[in-house]
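One example given next:
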Amino acid sequence: MSLPLLAADLVAVCLLAFAVYLPRHRRRDLVVSFLAVNVGVLAVSAALATSTVGAGLGLGLFGVLSIIRLRSTELGQHEVAYYFAALALGLLGGLATTDVLVSVALMALVVLVLAVGDHPRLLRRYRRQDMVLDRAFTDETALVAHLERLLGARVHSVGVHRVDLVNDTTALEVRYELVEAGRPTQPPVQAPPQAALHTPARDPLPLPLQHRVDQGVSR
């Protein structure tokens, strides 16, 4: 491992953790994890980097990280991407199997891809949410219509996890697109009860006065 690659790796992982991830997601614990994973992989790969174990070492470290992730707290997909980016930076800095300029360019590419791909303005109207509705839906069309009214958005897909007919609930995962940014959600408008639609009965109109007098004379 060369000193320029060591310096480039430290600069890249600091940019990734403190300039890209922390201002957007505000999780200090994961910043510590990214730094620890990067420095640990950098140290191990630099100590064991040889022509015979270089490729196997990289694959083994990816496997170890996957096992740790499966046995730890569940992470979002974007957080997994940052984990693998920190690991990739450590491998690029420790293995040194390519030219220094190529390794530095690849490190910059990794940081740039995450900075652009995880930007808040990129596809900001597309959302995913787990929900529990206080109503049991068995009709998918009615469920989609209810979600669109509730969220004020265009629903792209719905995955129903559980329909509880006893407690009248529906657990689901919905992916949707906001029609207008910042549009407030409003409850669906309910139709008035049927009783309010009936016209009240009216008393019969009285007969004209002359008609009643004629009836009295004829008798």
Observations:
- The chain has a mean pLDDT of 79.
- The chain has eight helices and three strands.
- Residues 3-117 form one domain.
- Strands lie at 126-133, 153-164, 169-178.
